[in-house]
Amino acid sequence: MDICARCSAREGRMEPYLPNYLKGKNRRLVFDLLRERGQMSRAEITRDTGMSFPTAMKVVDAFLEKGLLVELDETGPAAGAGRKGRLLRFEPGAYRAVGVECEGRFARVGLADMAGGVQARETIELGDFARTRDLSPLAAAIRRMCAAANGAPVLGVCIGFPANLDPDAAAIVSYAAMDIQQPTSFAQVFPAFWREVELPVYLENDANLACEGEAFLRRGAGGAANMLYLSIGSGCGGAVRLDGKLRRGARCRAGEVGAMLLQPALGAPGRSAARETLEDAVCLAALERRFGAALRDGAQPGEASAQAMRDYLCGPLSGAVYSLVMTLDVELCVLAGIVPGALGMQLCTQVSEALRAALPESTPVRVEPSVSADAGVIGAAATVFERSLDALLGSG
Q1: Do residues 69 and 87 lie in contact, with contact meaning Cβ atoms separated by under 8 Å?
Q2: What's the pTM?
Q3: Is residue 216 part of a domain?
Q4: What is the CATH number of the domain that holds 244?
Q5: Pairing mode, if any, of strands 86-90 and 39-41?
Q6: For 82, which DSSP code?
Q7: Domain region containing 343
Q8: Distance CA 238, CA 350 (A)
Q9: Is 28 exposed, middle or buried (0-12, 13-18, 19+ CB in 10 A)?
């Protein structure tokens, strides 16, 4: 007897749940397959999902009704000796989502479709929201994104916020800039914003969303299932994916790479004791002090200055990544943010070469730049679709 059958035999209340659960799984499977392929025939859907033809056709009919698929005049391969059937094309723009990536006093806001295409984007100034608790500029930008959807349903908005967050509780777990040390609901911190935005609102740490955006954009390319994401700018944040899942940890602090001690041999410092962290060494302010460099607002340093900064950064970055690769066993490290963007692919190359010389030969790791400046917005939109997909697809 399999596990599902044993559950049903022990507890009768499981029986009505299992058919709905399986319908939901079937619809997810077809959705993911069509999103990846773009277009397929009914015969291909049946073959590649392993479903029976009647089951697959029920899913297809539901997707056609919801506008997720359109039927083309073009024909596809036949099933067995049957005649060819029309191809079905996935419509990524049938539904949209708004993604937000907060970066200090500024935020990137975008409107994206289900395939990760960004139709509209803008950067807005949030001001000193940590003091004023006023996110009205963001609410206005979200309304503009909804208008840009031109009538397509917008399923929700996901906000990448620079704090430790509990997405399930929609709560800020801790955020030093606002002196939040205990879990506090986002609605309590920003009540006016919460009332003003009429869409479902989802929350996640900003680096986590950028990491998920990278994974989404790299799907099918390999290596994104076990990934370390580092964003270096005004601070140094990070995120970790292991076995294809984002990891948050017991206190939603997983990925806080910037807090790593540069000299752990000195022991753990007391709460008020001075300490030197990775963030202290590699953030914008550190580079500006050391090199007099201005990397903000898209400024590009001269090649001599850029190379001096790469040589300096290679030490602390390769050391930190080495420790994390050996501890977490990731196979990809993405360097993103203002600093890697200004210093170019050469920074990734230098860090990669240093790791290659240090890591065991059986522990390969790729060090690469971000594949898109929109990764945070795309990760946020993908989170909206992930969280709302079951309700959209239905299971009845």
Answers
A1: no
A2: 0.87
A3: no
A4: 3.30.420.40
A5: antiparallel
A6: S
A7: 223-370
A8: 20
A9: middle
Q: CA-CA distance, 269 to 25, in Å (whole number)?
A: 49
> From CA 169, how far away is CA 209, in angstroms rounded?
17
β-bridge partners, 277: 261
Helix axes 42-49, 53-65, angle to 10 degrees: 120
H or E segment to which residue 345 belongs:
helix 345-358
AA letter at 140: A
Place of tokens 């799907």: 219
Kindly report the length of the chain: 396
Residues 132 and 7 in one domain: no
- Enter the tokens of residue 249: 């940890």
User: Residue 124's beta-bridge partner residues?
Assistant: 107
Residue 17 CB neighbours (<10 A): 12
Q: Dump pLDDT digits (tens) for 2-15.
A: 334 334 333 444 34
The CA distance from 198 to 214, in Å, is 28
Q: Say if residue 29 is in the same domain as residue 81.
A: yes
Residues contacting residue 226 through CB under 8 Å, at least 6 positions apart: 241, 242, 243, 328, 329, 330, 331, 332
Looking at the DSSP bridge assignments, the partners of residue 63 are none
Same domain, yes or no, for 267 and 281? yes
Query: Minimal CA–CA distance to 124: which of 136, 115, 137?
Result: 137
189 & 282 share domain:
no
Q: Would you write out the chain's pLDDT as a tens digit for each of its 396 residues?
A: 333 433 433 344 434 444 676 778 889 999 999 999 999 999 999 999 999 999 999 999 999 999 999 999 877 666 554 556 789 999 999 999 999 999 878 999 999 999 999 999 999 999 999 999 999 999 999 999 999 999 999 999 999 999 999 999 999 999 989 999 999 999 999 999 999 999 999 999 999 999 999 999 998 766 689 999 999 998 999 999 999 999 999 989 999 999 999 999 989 999 889 889 999 999 999 999 999 877 876 678 889 999 999 999 999 999 999 999 999 999 999 999 999 999 999 999 999 999 999 999 888 899 999 999 999 999 999 999 999 988 888 754
Residue after which a domain boundary falls, among 90, 112, 136:
90
Domain shared by 145 and 190, yes or no: yes
User: What is the SS3 assignment for 182?
Assistant: coil
